[in-house]
Task: inverse folding
């Protein structure tokens, strides 16, 4: 018994163990958990796409409710919506840029060209919808954001990475017979999955800065 007269609870009481097991603060050891490049790509892709979508639409809400400004007024309050005007500064076609940015979802397939079998499946669109020519055209459209660097990075450098990767993938798709050596060279050029996909953050920052 404790000092209050209640029976003392044993340390190995099943209720204590169950409570500890259900405690959200209970630390879970990571040793032994599988964590390979494929899993990392599955984790990174959704996160980066959320960031990208936030960049695409982050300024459309306030812009839609802002009062129209007079000529020469602040650019950020002069567009009622990204869809109704070319852009906040009158120079960018935000609708075209957002359509091009949607193509970035296929960057994950550029990052997964790791074996002859995978290359054949992506090429045949057995999974994904990667069209290197369409992807390259989208990146050319996104180059309109080149001058909109932000604390998140340089969009031009990021777009160049994806554009060059798509051009390399196009060459890879045309290689016959496909060799692992050719794929390994491709992989060395694009870098790690996390770094490759991480370039989307700079593009999202540019979209937000351009008010698209």
Result:
């Amino acid at each position: 018994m404790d000092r209050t007269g209640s029976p003392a609870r044993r340390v190995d009481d099943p209720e204590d163990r169950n409570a500890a097991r259900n405690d959200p603060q209970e630390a879970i050891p990571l040793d032994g958990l599988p964590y390979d490049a494929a899993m990392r790509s599955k984790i990174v892709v959704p996160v980066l796409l959320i960031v990208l979508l936030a960049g695409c639409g982050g300024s459309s809400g306030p812009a839609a409710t802002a009062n129209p400004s007079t000529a020469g007024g602040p650019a950020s309050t002069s567009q009622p919506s990204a869809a109704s005007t070319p852009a906040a500064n009158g120079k960018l076609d935000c609708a075209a840029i957002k359509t091009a940015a949607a193509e970035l979802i296929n960057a994950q397939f550029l990052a997964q060209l790791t074996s002859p079998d995978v290359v054949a499946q992506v090429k045949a669109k057995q999974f994904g919808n990667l069209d290197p020519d369409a992807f390259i055209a989208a990146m050319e459209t996104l180059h309109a954001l080149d001058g909109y660097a932000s604390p998140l990075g340089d969009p031009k450098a990021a777009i160049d990475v994806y554009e060059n990767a798509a051009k390399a993938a196009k060459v890879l798709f045309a290689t016959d017979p496909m060799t692992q050596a050719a794929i390994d060279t491709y992989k060395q050029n694009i870098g790690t999955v996390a770094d490759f996909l991480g370039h989307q953050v700079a593009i999202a920052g540019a979209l937000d800065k351009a008010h698209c």
User: Anything to note?
Assistant: Confidence is low (pLDDT under 50) at residues 1-88. Residues 45-63+75-209 form one domain. Residues 37-57 form the longest helix (21 residues). The chain has one domain: 45-63+75-209.
